[in-house]
Amino acid sequence: MACHVRRRPNQPLTRIFGIAVALSLLPTGWVSAQQQLSEAVGQQGMVVSVSPPATRAGLDILKSGGNAVDATIAVEFALAVTWPEAGNIGGGGFMMVHPGGDHRRRRVVCIDYRETAPRKATETMFGPRDGRYTHKIVGVPGTVHGMVTAHKRYGSMKWKRLLEPAIHLARDGFEVDAALARSLNAVLASRSVRRGEHHQELIRVYGKPEGRWKAGDRLVLPDLASTLERIADKKDDGFYEGRIARLIEEEMKRGGGLITRRDLDDYRARVRSAVHGTFRGHDVYGAPPPSSGGTCVVQMLNVLEHFDLRKHPRYSARNLHVMTETMKRAYCDRARHLGDSDFVDIPPHLVSKSYAAGLASRIDLKKATPSEELAPEIQLADESPQTTHFSVVDRRGMAVSNTTTLEGSWGAKIVVRGAGFVLNNEMGDFNWFPGHTDRRGRIGTPANRIRPRKRMLSSQSPTIVARNGHPVLVTGSPGGRTIINTSLQMVLSIVEFGQDLPSAMRAPRIHHQWLPDRLLLETHRGTISDDVVKTLKAMGHTVFTRSRNSYQGDAHSILVDPKTGRLHGVADWRRNGLAAGF
Ligand code: DON
After folding, report:
1. Which of 326, 387, 445, 475 is catalytic?
2. Could you report the per-residue pLDDT of 48-73, keeping only the tens digit for each?
3. What is the pTM for the complete model shown?
4. Does residue 22 register a pLDDT over 80?
5. Cα–Cα 20 to 30 A to 253, which of 270, 321, 384, 576?
6. By C-alpha distance, which of 435, 484, 479 is closest to 326?
């Protein structure tokens, strides 16, 4: 039987499952009425995603005997229907696969289904007046080829069966929940959609003729259902060739976009080795370039290994200072070196222990290093977050950590006429202005400049932590550049601070990304005292606290007990979500 439950804040898990899960590490003062966690325990399989119908689609596949990759494919396509602000077939992402202990394939890999720049793209194709909701900003979508690639390598069920839940949801419709209603109303009311001539199809497909969307309404997506049926019948050929390819090309021509049928025909997902690191006796696997996620997470863990964070209170000035200085250095290296490894050489030292030891030794425990001092060679110009993550584990211990995105919420806010799906605005992840790096966080370094067919640098950080060859934590998050730090802190919560998953999910998150040179706290009320903030400021940090209702990430995760194989899934409370297992 599926077991999932929404837990009230502060209600100990012991009352629900009769098992001991300590909440003593829960930071007091941070728990609010909003922090309802959906969590589940199971032994046979677990899915945690932002969207309840998508979680159920994955669970259905696991219960029918599918493995974690089968379930992932079902969730990915279901999210394209039920979480259209980020779930997609018009975008891309990164899928980490740990095959578990007994699969014939033993390597941990990343299926890179990141979008590519069209052939006609050029380094200087964007100017300061270019917006984020145009046809020009759309990258060649990678999701469908990514799913087909994953299926060829790991799939155990028939491809068509994996698309059934998504087709059913799109064809027959599904109940809109409060989070989706909010998202639909927000995109429909946005200025860009109301004013832009290119968003009429989005309004036709997702608009509600009478009034605003509310929880309990039904959303039916017949065009998308037909597109998914084509993909079910013809796999990638159903998307990159024939009718859908023609509709994408026509859509591009209407709005001055660059993608042609040749670009679509050329698109290939890539199977890459995961970035591998170790931390306190655990193996850590992350997404390789063109994502910066794995490299930065491993680099930061290597640095933090030199500081016994657990000997100090989690939110002490000392720990926050050390974490912030570590983040600054990793994000600086990200800007300096990282891009698509098919186009640029990525220095291997970034994830080496000796390089990290050098970085750690240069962290001054008494004062902050100004960001600009870390990269004197990068000329600074004068001053002038939608993605979703889900996690799946099956009964054989195969684990998938999958992050997928359209880049901004609802991507380019353009729906392909007649095909029913939303296009990404991922070209925005390239460095738009060569040579222009500024203190506000705009980066113009060479590694991530636009080239035809190049993949844009990502921060997506789907992460799998393993011990003795078996996955123990599956995590990741949306949130633009904050993603890397959210994944890092999930790993630290579990491995360094020994928290259970609900406490790790509730723990406030911090973020520093080198530039702008500021430390962003999710909150400091209750958890991080005014005195700590004062000390950090005295050390030279510029500290900001996020405003109410502004959160960092949405890290739907699974913890596996290595001794018993018990799976504990927890959906982050920050946006929406459902954990379900059996
Ligand atoms: O790949 C990336 O790093 C970005 N396109 C992700 C964007 C994102 O997470 C926005 N949302 N929350």
Report:
1. 387
2. 999 999 999 999 999 999 999 999 99
3. 0.94
4. no
5. 270
6. 484
